[in-house]
């Protein structure tokens, strides 16, 4: 962490608000003081901040976090301005300019939006600003209900080729059980996925203000480390110590295997399948074991509506998703191609049909032990 020159810091709602849901100005100031100190040491800082929904609850007279999407979005639209205003004042006291950047996972799915976000964030860093990134809760649909700012932080870290990711929570580290119980052990390092086997990660934070919980933070760390970004998970109170390189929290080591390409990481974590293509057993083995392209001969069924170039889930006959890829055909075209060789298709339909359903360069494996897929869109 002390060698990192570009750091993405993610802070959750529970670390920024009081117990009654109000923005805690002292906590925001403490965090900005820490980040400004690193910025003064010539470290580029990108802050991914939750808290818009929580900040908007009190002005709207809401006692508990709303469950329906429309009220969540209303609270976010009120709270986002309050949240950024506090950051703007706090960073201004250090002579720093805060810049609001609102993103959704959909922005990370669309490659043109993805590149635009990268250019904007890079330019903000070049001119010395501190980008404050948040999920655009006022227009998000699926994402707002699952606390994806954790995942968004990991994707931003990859997007900007950050040197480190710091995930701040209301818990000081990852534990091998409920940290409130005697005998529970802090997990200091995670170097391989096997290090977390048998660990009860739980599902929610202590405060109940946010939505991500420890599960999404561990998933975020996994995404970042797959991209080669070392990650530390700790509490907001330990932010300064973590940035100073002290042994706090839980350290997730970057993967030692070959880093996935930008397209592979994008496909695996920033897209959702717009439909499903069902494979026969031979095609499943070829895709999983041989890193082969998916040919028309291996397809037995198509579900959902999608267009050429869309991401689709590749499933086995039991409906379990094994991979995701960018499809070369519209959904309506594929039934006429199923079970045919590309040579036969080229001879009967024309040379433009001598191509894969999904080329291996546009395909990423989601699991070697496939899990059941969500229903097709």
**How would you sum up the global shape?**
elongated
- The number of helical runs is 11
Which class do the helix and strand fractions yield? Answer: alpha/beta
Overall pLDDT confidence: 85
Question: Can you offer a commentary on this structure?
Answer:
Pathway: Amino-acid biosynthesis; L-proline biosynthesis; L-glutamate 5-semialdehyde from L-glutamate: step 1/2. One of its GO terms (molecular function) is ATP binding. Keywords: Amino-acid biosynthesis, ATP-binding, Cytoplasm, Kinase, Nucleotide-binding, Proline biosynthesis, Transferase. This is Glutamate 5-kinase. It catalyses: L-glutamate + ATP = L-glutamyl 5-phosphate + ADP. The protein has 377 residues and is of the alpha/beta class. The protein folds into 2 domains: 6-259, Carbamate kinase (3-Layer(aba) Sandwich); 272-372, PUA domain (Archaeosine Trna-guanine Transglycosylase, Chain: A, domain 4, Roll). Helices cover 33% and strands 19% of the residues. It has 11 helices and 14 strands. The protein has helices at 25-40, 52-57, 69-92, 105-109, 111-126, 149-159, 213-226, 239-243, 262-269, 281-290, 342-349, and strands at 6-11, 44-49, 98-103, 130-135, 164-169, 189-190, 231-235, 250-252, 276-279, 299-303, 311-315, 320-327, 358-365, 371-372. Strands 3-4-2-1-5-7-8-6 form an 8-stranded mixed beta sheet, sandwiched between helices. Strands 9, 10, 11, 12, 13 and 14 form a 6-stranded mixed beta sheet that branches. Helix 6 (149-159) packs parallel to helix 7 and helix 6 (149-159) packs antiparallel against helix 9. It starts with 5 loop residues before the first strand and ends in a 5-residue tail after the last strand. 44% of the residues are buried. Mean pLDDT is 85; it is low at 143-147, 203-211 and 368-377.
